[in-house]
Structures are given as structure tokens and as C-alpha cells.
Amino acid sequence: MGTTNVDRRDVMKRATAAGLLAVPALGSLTSCATGGGEEDKAEKGKKSADNPLAVKKDAELQAYIFNGGYDDKYARYVSDIYEKKYPDAKVDQKKTEKIATQTQPRIVKGDPPDVINNSGADNMNILSLVQNKQAADVSELLDAPSWDDPDVKVRDTFVPGVVEMGQFGSDAVYQLNVAQTVYGIWYSDTMLSKTLEVEYPKTWDEMLAVCKTAKKKGVHGWTYPAGHPRYMFFSMYAMFGQAGGRKQLEAMDYLEPNAWKSDAVKAVFEAYEELLAKKYVLEGFDGEKAHIEAQTAWTKGKAVFIPDGSWVENEAKPTTPKDFEMRVGATPSLDKGDAMPFGTLYAPPGEPFLIPEKAKNKQGGMEWMRMMYSKKAAQNFFREVSSMPVVKGAIDGLDLPPGVASSQKAIKAAGDDIVIAFFKEWYTALWNEEFNNVVGSFMNGDSSVKEAMNTMQKAADRVAKDPDVHKIKKA
Questions:
Q1: Can you give the pLDDT of all 475 residues of the chain as single tens digits?
Q2: Does one domain contain both 26 and 98?
Q3: Rounded to an integer, what distance in angstroms lies between the CA atom of residue 20 and that of residue 12?
Q4: Integer Cα distance of 382 and 380 in angstroms
Q5: Which residue range(s) make up the domain with 436?
Q6: Are residues 161 and 266 both part of a single domain?
Q7: How many structural domains compose the chain?
Q8: How far apart are CA 472 and CA 173, in angstroms?
Q9: Percentages helix, strand, coil for the chain, rounded to the nearest 5?
């Protein structure tokens, strides 16, 4: 596929959310070739006003859902809607933590499921799927009438950024997200206001002061899952933007030389180095379920802050006290001269879904997703997982749990200062593997700030120089 240059800020204006982007060009990554032959074996029915996607009404539908912080009950709700509308069709819904392990071999074979929630640590590389023509373009779904209003297209029901996040060259869309994810520093307002009697820190000096106060009371300032150290990115990324501005973030996205060796990156790593040096970080969670263990320690009051995403309210629900008052805080400013203000928020659309190109019931898969973006299903998603759906206005007027209410407040406060880590989507190994290893070594005290920066830059340079990876070019 050829490179399509799209000006980043023009797209941000169209999306009305700074930091959101229609992806300019597709990266060609190594993966298995597409299997199953070229013949389109997708089952189709008769198109009508009541069946705008031409679903074959008695065709079985199979959906694979990631069994993580959101579980799969919200998806089962959608499957029930599907079976109610098409009583002769059975929805075979499966949940797993091993999405790639269980679905990618079937995609290669040419006999994939019809819908895949491509999430979790064992997710598939979406760029690789698109490059090998294994993911379907769902533009037909986007241009179909929405479930709730036939006069409104599905694409027009989304909050800004959902369509843009699924584009990997031209106008085709290969994945769609269901959650409006908010990343940041999560805390208990009860702990902060009543136990420590302090306010949420807006500067790093204030953060250190809060941690010092907590230490005097026998509480660690921070914790994180050492078994999945990449969680530190959820607090560090917005700080990279605050310290260095959007130019810093774009340099990371476009694999520019020395992007990871800038003064901004150094300042952020040094800030966390001080947390470690003062022993403000509760460590020791290094198993497969490290994120659950760290979150449990946090909800039990052993630490004040944890870097996390907005799924945490649902995932940590079993151990969260009723009076916990969960909140998300924007990352503190490092210096008065920061390029972006306090309140800058890392808040991309999250929890992606895709339909394999060789799915037998491709039309049914798109119909299932059309139902998922109904207000009824979006409201159920919110009730089940305590996270904001991407359907505009779906939860307006509803009683919101503390974490969701806090997330909404943070998004409104951020305004145009929303940032998205696109290199994380384009070159997934740079986050899943390289950053994970780099920050893990750093947090363990096994590498210095300089070593962490150099190692991360070398990893980015390897991708930039790899002839088998077609780079996404800056306009």
C-alpha cells in the first residue's frame, strides 16, 4: 500500500479532539500469510431497511472476547440481542486471555471467528493483519444506519477518535473500539482527603510531598505491577507531552532520531527515579497476575497512587471498599516551563474489535457490532464494567460510579489537551516488549536514567532501520 500523507492537526480539527489522528500510512510487519484462498465464502442474506447489512438470518456467529478487566458479560448482552433478532442463528461466544494464541492460527488457516475483541497482552498485531489482508474493512458498518436512529449513520454516533484509531492507510477502517479509556494516576479520595488530609498534587514537588506525608503514616506513595512494568507508561506518557509538547510525542510516533534521548524524556525518568530513591514505591508484584496483586494492595490502602486505566474500577471492584471514592488524576507538572499544562490527559479510545476478512459470517459480525454501538448496549457496557462507552450521550443522565464520574471530569478538564500514543498502535513491540523491558529494569534499579533512554532509543532505531517495516511517514 502506498503512503497517504494526512496532516495531523487537520485531522485533529475534524475530530475535534487534539491528539487524535487519521493514520497516514500502513506499516508492513512480518507475520504469517493469509490462508484460505481468494474465494469469498461469506454468508449473506437479503438487504432491507430492517436488515441493512444483509445478514443471513440463520447463520451461526462466533465471537471471541478478551477475558480481562471487562470480562465478557457486556458482550454476552449484545449476543443476546443478536439471538433475539435472529432466533434461528446461534451466537457461539467464547472468552479467553489468549486472543492471538487461539484466533490467529485460524485466521491464517482461513477459518477465523466472525468477531474478535483483539485486546490483552496476547493480542494480535493489527498492522500485520491489515498488511496481510486478514482484517476486514468495516466501512460498510460505519455507513449503515445506527441501531437507534435509521437517519444517523453508525460512524456519527461515536465520540471523536474512534474511526481515526482504526485507520491504517486511506479511508478504510479495520478496527473499532468500544471503551473511552482514561489513563492516569488513580487514587482514593478518601485516602487523600481524610487519611492524609492533602489535595491531589498538581506539580511533581507536591507529589513528593504527598508521598512523604504518606510514608510518615506507614503508607507507600506508589505501587505498580512489576510483572507488567509497562503500566508505568499510563502515567509517564502524558508527562512526556507536558514536558516536551506535541513535538516530543510526534518524535516518538515517527521514530525520529533521539526522540527517546530528549531533555523531556530525561526529566520524566528522573522524576520517577526520585520516587524510587526515596523508597516511596511499594514493590514485589511480579507474577502473571501482578496487576491484580498491585491493585489489591492499593485498594487495601497500602499505597496512595497507581498508574492504571479506567478499567480498574471494574477490575478492582471485588477488593474496593465502599467508601474508597476512586478517582483518576492527571499527571503532575514537572516545571513551570512545561510545554503542556497540568490536566493533559492520555485518553485514547480502547478495547478494539475487528472482523477477519475471511469470516464466514462477516455481515453478521458487522451487525453484531452495530448492536454493540446501540445506546442500550452502551449503557449496559457502562453498568457492567464501570467504564465510559464510545457512543455519544449514552450515559448522560445516569448515576455514575466515582471512577467513571472522575474520568468524565478529567476529559472535560483536559479539553484539547488529550494525547494519544500512536507509536504504541503502529509499532506494538516498542511498547509491549521494549518499553516493558526498559522500564522494568529501570524500576528495579538495574539501569540508570541514561541507560533506559539509550536502550529505548536503540529499540526505536532498530524499527526505523528495519527494511521489512514500512514506516508511517510524517506529513
A1: 222 233 333 333 333 333 333 333 343 333 343 344 444 567 799 999 999 999 999 999 999 999 998 999 999 999 999 999 999 999 999 999 999 999 999 999 999 999 999 999 899 988 889 889 999 999 999 999 999 999 999 999 998 889 988 887 568 999 999 999 999 999 999 999 999 999 999 999 999 999 999 999 999 999 999 999 999 999 999 999 999 999 999 999 999 999 999 999 999 999 999 999 999 999 989 888 999 999 999 999 999 999 999 999 989 999 999 999 999 999 999 998 999 999 999 999 989 999 999 999 999 999 999 999 999 999 999 999 888 999 999 998 899 999 999 999 999 999 999 998 989 888 888 998 999 999 999 999 999 999 999 999 999 999 999 988 877 777 6
A2: yes
A3: 5
A4: 5
A5: 183-346+422-465
A6: no
A7: 2
A8: 16
A9: 45, 15, 45
CATH number at residue 84: 3.40.190.10
Q: Which residues pair with 64 in a beta bridge?
A: 94, 116
Residues 6 or more apart whose CB falls under 8 angstroms from that of 407 comprise 180, 182, 310, 328, 387, 388
In a domain, residue 410? The reply is no
The answer to whether the pTM exceeds 0.90 is no
- Judge contact between 274 and 259, C-beta under 8 A: no
**Residue 161 domain-assigned (yes or no):** yes
* 2, burial (CB in 10 Å: exposed 0-12, middle 13-18, buried 19+): exposed
Distance from chain centroid for Cα 2:
27
Determine, yes or no, domain membership for 446.
yes
Task: Give me 293's grid cell.
Answer: 496483586
Residue 243 lies in a domain: yes
For residues 264 and 383, membership in a common domain is answered with no
- Asked if 411 and 418 touch (Cβ cutoff 8 Å), the reply is yes
3-state secondary structure of 260: helix
